[in-house]
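Data card: per-record layout.
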Amino acid sequence: MKKILGNISCLLILFLGVTGCEDQLDINRNPDSLSQGGVALATEFPAAVTGVIGATGSYAAIVGGFWSQYWTQSPSSNQYKEIDDYSILSNSGVINGFWQNMYDALGDTRNVKRIALEQENWNYYLMATVLEAYNAQIMVDFFDQVPFMEATNPEILQPQFDSGEEVYDQIITNLNEALEKDLNESQGEAPGADDLIFGGNMDNWVAFANTLKLKIYLRQENARPDVTAAGITNLLNSGAEFLNVDAGMDQFEDAPNKSNPLYESNIRQLNTPTNLRASTTLYSFLETNEDPRLEEYYTNGISLDQGDFNNTDVEPNSIAVVELDPQTPAYLISREESLFMQAEAQLKYGSEALAQELYNEGVIENFSKYGLDGAAFVAPGGAYAFPTMEMKKIN
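The structure for this 395-residue chain is written out next.
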């Protein structure tokens, strides 16, 4: 998979018409040295983006999909049994691949951040800081204690592991520091096509930074309620803008090493389209609510109980397969996730009326991604209607 992610990075960079991977691997110069014609910001930043997208869109997506019970292992294969039955080991291929690729991407990200700071290029500095924060937040959520403060330092061969709380706090500090920079005074090159996420739109990067802060505060509500309350209240009172667009990549093609990371790793590289089958957990929920997205998520067929991959009574070909497309965008934070997080924050620390509005908008947004209208589902009496006070009392 590391080879796959590297190829995706190289092909995208070459597509953009910037320095190729062969130049980056020239051992006769230091690629991080500006004085030696080192890697330009517009070259290394897309490598950092594709590294994070590749790792989260394949390794993390596989584990997340199983543990959220969106899909389950096909009885006709055994690729993901250790994930499906929660016996995955710390030295498994999925965990090792995820860890290594995320830290490879972190190295690229921090190099962009370092050079941007030297050049006072506050646009790339903010972009790199946000990507660094996203990388670290995902790693903490997966592993809790991870190397962060000393990570990617070539002079420290055994970086210390920092606690999840320490990493979260440092992420917030870093984001605040980057947000304080005056983007109008940014020096040097401006981001454009090399920004594979927003195409150089810095307003969206500011919103991404604020949305990440919101996400980090919400994550700590049970463990550090005072930190969460203070952080979210400050965000809401400050009038901070949050993501109202998808943060992700959509520059995928139906070709080897150029497709959506999950499609690339699960279908193209394994040479089979049937590894992931419909889990009864999500399948039955959509079916019960007569949700038309059922046909968008799975092919025709029946579902399989989660983890029942040893079932010999069910014909494998009768079980619905998860729909994957090589050109599906890969999201870091989708618009609907941002809306749902804003709704949660408003419900607990702001306006319940605004929370309902944001929630409804989030549901409708996801339906719209499949060309469907979800308005009826959030209307009063609809399957996904925002819970009223009366409904809360009943529950």
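Known properties of this structure: The first helix runs from residue 2 to 15. The longest strand covers residues 330-333.

See the next section for split statistics.
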